[in-house]
Amino acid sequence: MTEAMVRANETTVPVLPCASVEETLEFYQALGFGVAYKQTRPYIYLALEWSGVALHFGTPPKNIDPSREDAGACLVMVDEVAPYHAEFTRALRAAYGKVLAKGRPRITRFRPGASRFTVVDPSGNSLIFIQRDEPAELEYGGSKSLTGLAKVLDNARVFSEFKNDDRTALRALTTGLRKYGSTAPPLDVARTLATLIELATALDDPEGVDDWRRRLTALPLTATERHQVTKTLRTPDTLHLSPTATPPQPQDRPAPSPWRRPVRRPVAKSYRFLKAILETAADEELIRRNPRRNKGGGSERRSRTVSSSSASARPRSGAPPSAASGAGPARRSGSRRASASTTSATRATPCRPSPAPPSRTRWSAPASPRRRRR
After folding, report:
1. What pLDDT sits at residue 229?
2. pTM of the predicted model as reported, rounded to 2 decimal places
3. Helix 21-31 and helix 82-96: axis angle, to 10°?
4. CA of 87: how far to CAs of 25, 160, 266, in Å?
5. Angstrom distance (rounded) from CA 53 to CA 122
6. Which pLDDT belongs to residue 331?
7. Using CA atoms, how far apart are residues 215 and 237, in angstroms rounded to an integer?
8. Cα 106 from Cα 124, distance rounded (Å)
9. DSSP code string of 79-125
10. Strands 125-131 and 72-78
11. Per DSSP, what are the bridge partners of residue 107?
């Protein structure tokens, strides 16, 4: 009988907390994971698999707060991290139309040559992909072999890539640029400015971006140095280092038609939304009845714009209709007679049927005053 012994063929599967089953399944299936097992009652348990990665999820603790992003973590050791990041970004772009790089869930940005990236799921769990040949120790504060602004850049890289702390990296670069910017080589200044623009864009903090971009554009860099600057970034398209030769010219737009397409106003939508809320409250007996009962309040009316020609042809208020249109008898003034008809203004077809015309009443022109005999 062979004695049982420990063999190096173990498989470790993490069990992470799941704050929302629907959101968790939607996100991981968008990444490409398949559902191997799903249970929601009497307790939550999910089993997801992709490639050689297996993730299990269970009932979360009562005090879990996904916004803190400290629910759980899992390290995935791989030979090369770049293909994994490229596969996930392709899957996210196909599912959501964009790469989720902000908020939660998200995937962190990847700089060429980096050795790790992180996936944060809706429950606040972190899935960290790490390259196996990554350095075992990190030199916080920057590499000891570097000095000045280059050392500050290396320190910011550690905070951004290994701690996922872009805010601290932004503060470190801002302080370092103010301290060493006047004496540092132009290439280090350009790399610092480019990294500041990238971090501020990722953090939705536009303050200072325009000034950094102007300083970066004004630096005397060669084409090779500019390529080196963009190569070290994760999102080089945020720099706009290649300005266009001529600004785009505005296209000539046709004159608007006198009968414009009606613009939908938000009043009717707001009324329908409020009415639906009150109807729900009345159904649940939170209120006695729905107080909003304006007939036709939720309908949208079309507005029309009358051309100047038709507006000038309209009769003035108080004037009889036949005097403006020329349909009544001609009006006499002395020995001369006014024309019996005038040219009617051209009117476009209205967007809605006009109301029925009022009943015509016979109108006679006032008698002309008698001439005084000499």
Report:
1. 84
2. 0.55
3. 120
4. 18, 22, 43
5. 18
6. 45
7. 17
8. 10
9. S-SHHHHHHHHHHHHHHHSS---SSSSEE----TT-SEEEEE-TTSE
10. parallel
11. 119
CA dist 118 and 75 (Å) reads 9
Residue 207 corresponds to which tokens in the numbers above?
Answer: 């303050």
Q: Write the CB contacts of 29 (distance below 8 Å, at least 6 apart in sequence).
A: 35
Q: How many residues does the chain have?
A: 374
Q: Based on C-alpha coordinates, what's the Rg of the chain?
A: 37
Dihedral of CA atoms 200, 149, 115, 163 in degrees, nearest 10, equals -60
Q: What is the pLDDT of residue 289?
A: 75
Q: How far is CA 241 from CA 1, 112, 121, 135, 157, in A?
A: 73, 19, 34, 33, 22
The pLDDT assigned to 80 comes to 94
Q: Whose CA is closest to 107, among 168, 49, 31, 44?
A: 31
As a whole number of angstroms, the longest Cα–Cα distance in the chain is 152
Q: Is-contact 53 12, C-beta < 8 A? A: no
Structure tokens at 170: 């932004």
Q: For 179, phi and psi rounded to 5 degrees?
A: -85, -40
- Tokens 């803190």 belong to residue: 68
103 Rama sector, left if φ>0, alpha if ψ -120 to 50, beta otherwise: left
> Please, are residues 95 and 107 in contact by the beta-carbon 8 Å criterion?
no
Report mean pLDDT in 10-residue bins for the chain, 374 residues.
80 95 96 96 96 95 92 94 95 93 88 89 95 80 85 89 86 93 92 89 84 90 85 60 42 50 61 79 77 65 51 48 44 43 45 53 51 55
Q: What is the pLDDT of residue 260?
A: 46
Q: Is 252 helix (H, G, I), strand (E, B) or coil?
A: coil
Q: Are 118 and 128 in contact (CB under 8 A)?
A: yes
